[in-house]
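Input record (one chain):
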Amino acid sequence: MTNHSLEVEALMKKFTAVKGKSPLVPLFQRGKFCQGREYPSLKKRGQGRFFGKAIPLAQFGLLTMLCLLLALTAQVSAQSVSLDAAKKEGKVFVYGTVVPQVMKLIEAGFEAKYGVNIEYWRGDATKVVDRMLTEWRAGKPGFDMVIGARGPLSLAKADGVYAKFTPPSAANFPAKFRDKDGQLTAWRITPVGILINTDLVKPNDMPKSWDDLLDPKWQGKITMPDPSRHASTATFLWNLQKFKGEKWMDFVRALAKQKPQLVESYSSVPNAIVRGEAALGISYIQYVPQTKGPIGFAPVDQLLADPSDAAISAKAVNPNAARFLIDYLCSPEGQKKVAETNEFVLSPGVYPAIKGADRILANLQLLDDPSSEQLQKLLSDFRQLFVAR
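The corresponding structure, as predicted from the sequence alone:
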């Protein structure tokens, strides 16, 4: 007897045992399915209900359990076929922003579990979105899946780039991280903080707030991504209004007068710091334990963060492999492995080995995403402030 037959037999036994009793899981609710068909809710409509007349409780229970049986067996079959299909596809092409040392560990765990290879191309958030949209608009998308910050990835929704997918393993993630369109799946969070060179910054000089970056002694000693080209940094600066209100732009102008060293992306900042090219930098906190050298981060309470999302191409060549990769990233096993690389994840109670990680997650605020028009204006304004000075 096959595994599938054994599962069906077990379900039939459960069905017989509860026959004539009230069902524990009513399927006739909005959004639930029976054999792939959606049924409306059982709310009253005029004088009638979904059925033309009342159904005896026992019959209703039998009907409901039958639908449950059919739905569950169909689900078991569908999952089996999807896994077989993913293995048959054999690989998944991913464009993303995850640094190589972290992605290698994800690849090893996923390939060992499912026997599916990950073909990975990395760039900063702006380059990932630019390549993705360029290929999409040319009708030749080369990716099955994309990983990046929510703000930049959201800009591609208007082009219909993504397929809807909600991995079952993300069900226990905090609701505030969910994408309202069901296209982007958050699997980690990336707090932006002030990184320091521990050899160059004395403990008494450690910044305790964002305003401390404006101290004249730090002029020419700060590094940050170029906000006229790096969409994530432009979005971060714009979101400082959450803390500073209408005076956020005054802070940005003052920061530009500090003549910061502009680099390509957040991942370039820690390298400049450990080389001694800058004493301070604006970047992701998780880069501190991921980088060898004299590097730390300042104890700033006001932190902003963007979810790091994964999404499947609406024209994916390997859609089943992509679904399994996203589900793996959100699974307990995947979340633990990601946290072990000192990344902040969304699974409750799972933290990286970073001092104060629980406090960091408790205090951070999520970034809002500017519209495409707002982002273009921000990039232009920041070009005048930071580049054309």
